[in-house]
Amino acid sequence: NYLLGVGRADCTGPVAEIPLMGYANPDQVGGGLLTRLYSRAFIVADLDDSRRVVFVSADIGMVSQRLRLEVLKKLKSKYGKLYRQDNVILSGTHTHSGPGGYFQYTLFWITSKGLIRPSLNAIVNGIVKSIDIAHQNMKRGRLFINRGTVENSQINRSPFSYLKNPASERSRYSSDTDKEMVMLKMVDGNGQELGLISWFAVHPVSMNNTNHLVNSDNVGYASYLFEQEKNKGMLAGEGSFVAAFASSNLGDVSPNTKGPFCVNTGESCNNPQSTCPVGGATTCMAMGPGNDMFDSTRIIGQNIYFKARELYEKAFQEVTGPLSSAHQWVNMSDVSVELNTTHTVKTCKPALGHSFAAGTTDGVGAFNFTQGSVEGDPFWDEIRDQLLGEPSNETKACHKPKPILFNTGEMTWPHPWHPDIVDIQIAAIGSLAIVAVPGEFTTMSGRRLREAVKREFDSHGTPRMDVVIAGLCNVYTHYITTYEEYQAQRYEAASTIYGPHTLSAYIQLYRGLARAIATNTLQDLPRGPEPPVFNITTVTLVPPLTVDRVPPNKTFGDVLQEVRQQYRAREVVEVTFVGANPRNSAENATEHNFLTVERYASTSDSWDVVQNDASWDTRFYWTKRLLGRSNVTIEWHIPYGTEPGIYRIRYFGHHKKKLSNNLTVFIPFEGASSAFEITAL
């Protein structure tokens, strides 16, 4: 028995003009909303409340060091020593369709156009609020664990790297991806269902890099389906049941199950270089199971949800035992690793290899960093020159056989380009050990790490631990491949920034944490060197918010293109309004809802909201026009089984206006479509 609390809060942030974080494609800028992003928090405490563990899974690309430090600072000022570095795990789901700009290390500024305060603030506030809600709702409860296999939802996107691992090791596994889902179910003392955390290794890249709508991708869709099922009669994002689908060792795992094809010829490009005869690597793209990316997202999300539901309903193995948490900061550019009694190796200063720029079959050509995009700005010109600086001989030798493209560990202008100080962390909840890793471990790297941690617990009198890897936690350090995979130097290996022995170093470090937990010697763990906090207010290429304007004889919220009078299920309702920049709303109204779908109730002569902008059936598009004008188009993809009746769509925005005294204000407005009828099929 434990005290349990769950909470969910919006962390979407600005949905327009902010680069989306994940594919590192500067052209992939937000232009609307498919579904809101949420932070989901879970608190477990001893009955005597002497110890607590917090696990947060947020619908973001990854947790950055800046984000974590700001969240912990806020928690400290609210709760004192209750929530700390060691007992709070922050994990990102790794959606590639969330706003970027929340990083302090310079490399990440290039594709996300700097440090963007509104984006960072939205995530910090959302995470803290989700923890607040969980904190306020603590009650006695029980935990149950289950595990099972998810089929038809992943492929290994670097199979030729995987094959470099020893045959004797590979023969112990039936697949080149981890198909196992681990599920933690939470119920209160009266059997009332509270929520669940599922860990499963898959990249949330069903939505590809042509997408401009903010969304939480396949795992977010699984959360949505589970929460909609449990929070009956509630709108998306509402209700007390919280279902988190968290990331794991997904480094080389893609949901694009049809595999890689040449987009121009349709032939397979599943070769060691992922290249096509015409167009090379840029035309080799992996395809999901659906007709388009929206369909693929639903199919993969649904597969994950169905498995989770089955495991949830059959979760009878109870988790009991003490709580404990261990955390250290480590300088990952300088770790000595004892491979055996005679042989010691070292990690390296961070650097990215040539294949990093090639991207993957899920998103090709990550870094088209051209002169054109930085023209005429001395700050960004200097950044480009920094990028192409020559690495030292020591760094070159350390990273072999990686050919270094970006020598980030030796670049410090205007701030360091990559982290040296990295968080390592394990939280134990009874027999469950959550290993929080600062990046993307490949399938085999994850297997080795889990095995090493489990062995460490076993040998110190704590057998039968369930060890689960939580991915993209606390600070982002790109990928972690095995030493053998590193030799192949595909994208994941080129992005293993601390060199060929990165995995061995992590295994050594996490074993140390597991040993401290198992032997109850946490007080002897050195804290390690604190990470720096750079004094950056805002450095950004995101355009400033300008005054919004309307076409002649129109006002904000006017309909430009009206709905039809009649629709059936599975058709798409579309309406276009005179709009304003959605950033006005994100920066001035927290939890702003851009749209509703409403059904007319004749008995009460009122309109009832049936969908909001968090629904996966609605799409909100913002198009910038000239002279400060913009349009908003709202689509509703009418789901099968929608009740016939009279409906309308409403739009809510804010426009920026200059007053006579030169002050600017944001003025709320709304618009509504005409009523339309949905008829039975």
TrEMBL record:
Domain of life of the organism encoding this protein: Eukaryota
Domain Neutral/alkaline non-lysosomal ceramidase C-terminal: 511-678
GO CC field: cytoplasm; extracellular region; plasma membrane
Reactions catalysed, as given in the entry: an N-acylsphing-4-enine + H2O = sphing-4-enine + a fatty acid
Database matches in InterPro entries: Ceramidase_alk (IPR006823), NCDase_C_sf (IPR038445), NEUT/ALK_ceramidase_C (IPR031331), NEUT/ALK_ceramidase_N (IPR031329)
Annotated ranges, domain Neutral/alkaline non-lysosomal ceramidase N-terminal: 2-508
Residues reported in the UniProt entry to bind Zn(2+): H94, H203, E440, Y479
Cofactor binding note from Swiss-Prot or TrEMBL: Binds 1 zinc ion per subunit.
Known cofactor(s): Zn(2+)
EC nos: 3.5.1.23
Catalytic machinery residues: S254 (nucleophile)
GO-annotated molecular function: metal ion binding; N-acylsphingosine amidohydrolase activity
Zinc listed as a keyword: yes
Keywords recorded for this protein, A-Z: Hydrolase, Lipid metabolism, Metal-binding, Sphingolipid metabolism, Zinc
GO biological process, one term: long-chain fatty acid biosynthetic process
Pfam families the UniProt entry points to: Ceramidase_alk (PF04734), Ceramidse_alk_C (PF17048)
Keyword Flavoprotein among record annotations: no
Record-stated family: Belongs to the neutral ceramidase family.
Protein name per its UniProtKB record: Neutral ceramidase
